[in-house]
Specification:
The longest helix has 26 residues. This protein has two domains: 213 residues, Aminopeptidase (3-Layer(aba) Sandwich); 360 residues, no CATH class. By secondary structure, it is α/β, with parallel strands linked by helices. 48% of the residues lie in helices and 11% in strands. Helix 4 runs antiparallel to helix 5 and helix 20 packs across helix 22. The termini are far apart. Pfam families: MATCAP. It comes from Sphingobacterium daejeonense. Its cofactor is Zn(2+).
Length: 611
């Protein structure tokens, strides 16, 4: 390799290292294009000046990373190997897809060539998508004994080199059905092939990122549409309709929590309480049928297809959980939806309980405010937010059939038996109204309902933000931190197979919680048959503190009910004006609280929030 070539190659490798887009043209040879640094490359080697295939050349332009070059008088492998190796080192794997015009003996319209066993699942996925997109195109897979490549060109990799599973090479040979006997392009057919392959390659690369690399596929924004398609809107609307047919939290929260506590106390804490739940008013099988009748596979954009598919799976799991209340399968569903307790999270929770003093009973009766007084405070906060946007609204209801407080679709529900100390009340207002209601309202202003209902797995970020809001307004005291940590311990104890009584006794005897506080913690964790959701409060708070420490923007989190790894998508959609900025800003993000936010960034650890 000449010094000039070496210098050019180093420029490309440096761009990969910095994640900077790079375009490099070799005069009279070809182009290396990385519109985005991704661990895959589409390759088209032109066999001769008069044999350049327009469809393949145009297809290369649709990809984030592509190489179009001569196959003659150019050693592509000298450039490709260090580039592919660098991508594999950076991302965990690299996929090379080379396309070429098939010879006249090929019967199939498209043949997918695979020479590595590890690549077969991707090839089958690619084939399946082509069949769905264009039934008139006949496609099959060839499990090549040799390296997949066009005939008569230098090999890019030897079979021995491809034993390194970090580099995957797939070939696509395509019959020129879109060119007639006089070498004239047939416009309808060439568009069919180009659009079909562009869609299916986009999905192929997305699946490769998701399964074969350590990247978060949703963060890659692969060829996202400039506007939402009618099919996207239709599926979003359908998912919203199915979501509103059942209220998950209400359906898994006991109707008789207060009465169960009184009976538990009367039984001297030795008899497991019996919880009653709302009757199931939806048919899970019908909900599932409607969910899986949605044509998500027909969405061109792989990112939106992934988000919708993810939300469908979550709704499927949630409706199954409601049907499985009181059964072992409920806990299995909870682990799928809300996750497990990691060792790091468990140790952090234990450490918080060890370094903080147990709560003391409130002696003065007037230190507590009633449910109705708390409801008045909430309504006052709603009026404050309405001053920013007249459409903002949140009904505040005092009810007999719930436990504690909860927000459901923008409505604040408060238990008739609920009481809270005056010091905690303002913090709780910012938790429930300032976070849960505000993000619901802001999400409703977006063109997709999924941002108000919640993208799959939004709870971690949402609860972390809500708890941090308590700290910002001065209401996250040690007692509250202890409760959040105890929830993690209770979830872990439940997952280990311990009973309600065992976990209650542990919190009272080992960690000195008051019996009523311990009962509430354990009831929330054991409801329905085992709900792991309560571990997300501490997990989300810790993740959010790290997010702020790294200098990220907290205002972006108010867009709707989102999760952290969706933020690259959201930034992209904001730039394209598909999404709009938050319509309402909560009180705790006003300038008067800037010092508190700076304090959190400076401290950078949950343990430094302990008073």
């Amino acid at each position: 390799m000449t010094p000039d070539k070496n210098k050019a190659l180093q420029k490309i490798l440096s761009a990969i290292n910095k994640r900077s887009p790079v375009h490099y043209q070799i005069p009279n040879i070809g182009k290396f294009i990385f519109n985005k640094i991704v661990p895959y490359i589409f390759i088209y080697r032109v066999p001769s000046p008069d044999k350049r295939d327009k469809m393949l050349a145009d297809l290369a332009k649709t990809e984030n990373a592509s190489i179009v070059c001569k196959s003659y008088d150019f050693n592509l492998e000298e450039w490709l190997k260090p580039i592919a190796q660098k991508l594999a080192e950076e991302f965990g794997a690299c996929l090379l897809v080379e396309a070429w015009v098939a010879d006249h003996n090929q019967k199939e319209d498209i043949m997918i060539h695979v020479g590595q066993k590890d690549l077969l699942p991707l090839a089958e996925y690619f084939q399946k998508n082509i069949k769905k997109e264009a039934r008139e195109i006949f496609v099959s897979i060839a499990k090549d004994l040799n390296i997949p490549q066009p005939i008569g060109v230098p090999i890019l990799y030897s079979k021995k080199e491809l034993q390194n599973k970090q580099i995957l090479l797939m070939g696509i040979s395509i019959k020129q059905n879109y060119v007639d006997s006089d070498d004239l392009v047939l416009p309808m057919l060439i568009r069919l092939y180009r659009e079909t392959l562009a869609k299916c390659l986009s999905r192929l690369f997305f699946e490769f990122l998701r399964v074969y690399t350590h990247l978060n596929a949703t963060a890659q924004r692969l060829n996202f549409h400039q506007e939402l398609t009618p099919l996207m809107n239709e599926i979003d609307k359908s998912l919203a309709q199915e979501s509103t047919k059942f209220d998950f939290l209400l359906m898994v929260t006991p109707l008789n929590a207060h009465e169960a506590w009184l009976q538990f106390k009367k039984d001297k804490y030795w008899k497991t309480p019996k919880f009653l739940y709302r009757p199931l008013h939806v048919d899970p099988d019908l909900v599932k049928r409607r969910l899986y009748n949605l044509r998500i596979e027909d969405i061109y954009d792989p990112t939106m297809a992934y988000i919708f598919r993810d939300k469908r799976t979550e709704l499927d799991n949630m409706v199954s959980m409601i049907a499985d209340r009181g059964k072992d399968d409920f806990l299995h569903g909870s682990l799928q939806v809300f996750g497990n307790v990691s060792e790091k999270l468990y140790k952090s929770a234990m450490a918080i309980l060890m370094v903080t003093e147990p709560e003391e009973p409130i002696k003065k009766a007037d230190d507590y405010i009633s449910a109705n007084e708390f409801a008045k405070m909430a309504r006052d906060e709603v009026k404050f937010l309405q001053s920013q946007n007249a459409e903002f609204n949140s009904p505040v209801r005092v009810r007999e059939d719930i436990s504690g407080v909860m927000v459901n679709r923008g409505v604040l529900n408060i238990s008739k038996e609920y009481k809270v100390t005056r010091k905690r009340a303002e913090a709780l207002i910012q938790h429930e109204i300032g976070t849960h209601v505000v993000t619901y309202f802001n999400g409703r202003q977006q063109p997709l309902s999924i941002f108000s209902l919640g993208v799959p797995g939004y709870e971690e970020l949402q609860e972390g933000l809500a708890v941090l809001a308590e700290y910002i307004v001065g209401g996250l005291n040690n007692d509250r931190l202890r409760i959040i940590a105890a929830r993690v311990i209770a979830v872990q104890n439940m997952l280990l197979g311990n009973s309600f009584i065992d976990t209650f006794s542990m919190l009272v005897d080992q960690y000195n919680f008051l019996p009523e506080t311990a009962f509430t913690i354990v009831m929330r964790v054991y409801r329905g048959g085992g709900l792991t959701k309560d571990a997300l409060y501490l997990k989300g708070l810790m993740e959010l503190i790290t997010y702020l420490k790294d200098g990220n923007n907290v205002h972006l989190l108010m867009m709707g009910k989102i999760r952290k790894d969706y933020l690259p998508i959201i930034k992209d959609l904001l730039q394209k004006e598909i999404l709009i900025p938050p319509a309402v800003t909560p009180r705790y993000l006003f300038p008067e609280f800037s010092p508190q936010w700076k304090d959190v960034k400076r401290k950078g650890s949950i343990f430094k929030l302990i008073q």
